[in-house]
Amino acid sequence: MQTIELLVSLKIPDVTALTAGSAIRRRLGYDQVLKELRRSDYYSLDLNADDPDAARLLARELANKTNLFVNPNKHSYEICSPQEHSGGPAQQDGLWRVEVLVTPVEGAQAPEIEQALKERLDYGDQVAAVRQGILWMMLLAADSADEARRIAESITVTTARDEGLLVNPHFQAWQIL
Q: What 3-state class would DSSP assign to 52?
């Protein structure tokens, strides 16, 4: 079993991410801190493949040949391994890149997609499980990885009208990757 991540982004400007970024800067006071905010649909695919290369090949086929993940007219996608998104904040061009995965509290399973792949599209036992969420990527001006992590958490988790925006902790879970 191999786990592959599929990140799907809009080719055009993402107005949801632009609006959220504007609100975080203006309403929450992170104008000098939040330099960029991007959003991707996140899919974690457990694939029955012999090795990581075979799993990547199958994930690319699923993205290109089904209409379940990517509309080629409006989306671009990236295939990666979970290890590429672990380790916490990383420096990028003098800023800290922090990725936050948001999923429903009751679980990120995507039974409709999984069922369509297995039954309607004949991928059968090649696909063991599909999970989905939203991956937010922030570029932050911070002095250290710990500070970047604290800032990302305060931007992410809604605790009051003027604190947090990207996650409602009553029905969403989150983790910094």
A: helix
Nearest to 158 by CA among 35, 43, 20: 20
Per 3-state DSSP, what percentage of the chain is helix, strand, and coil (rounded to 5)?
30, 35, 30
User: Which pair of tokens denotes residue 31?
Assistant: 């104008």
Query: What single-letter DSSP state applies at residue 173?
Result: E
Please give the Cα distance from 29 to 20 (Å, whole number).
Answer: 13
DSSP state of 144: S
Query: Which helix or strand (DSSP H or E) is residue 12 part of?
Result: none
Alpha-carbon 138 to chain mean position: 11
Mean of pLDDT values over 130-141 = 96
Q: For the domain with range 2-176, which CATH number is right: 2.30.30.60, 1.10.132.80, 3.40.50.150, 3.30.1280.10?
A: 3.30.1280.10
Q: What is the pLDDT of residues 32-73, one digit of tens each?
A: 999 999 999 999 999 999 999 999 999 999 999 998 999 999
| Residue 47 contacts residue 57 (beta carbons within 8 Å) | no
CA distance 36 to 109: 29
For the whole model, what pTM was predicted? 0.91
DSSP-derived secondary structure for 79-142: EE-GGGG-SS-EEETTEEEEEEEEEETT--B-HHHHHIIIIIS--GGGEEEEEEEEEEEEEE--
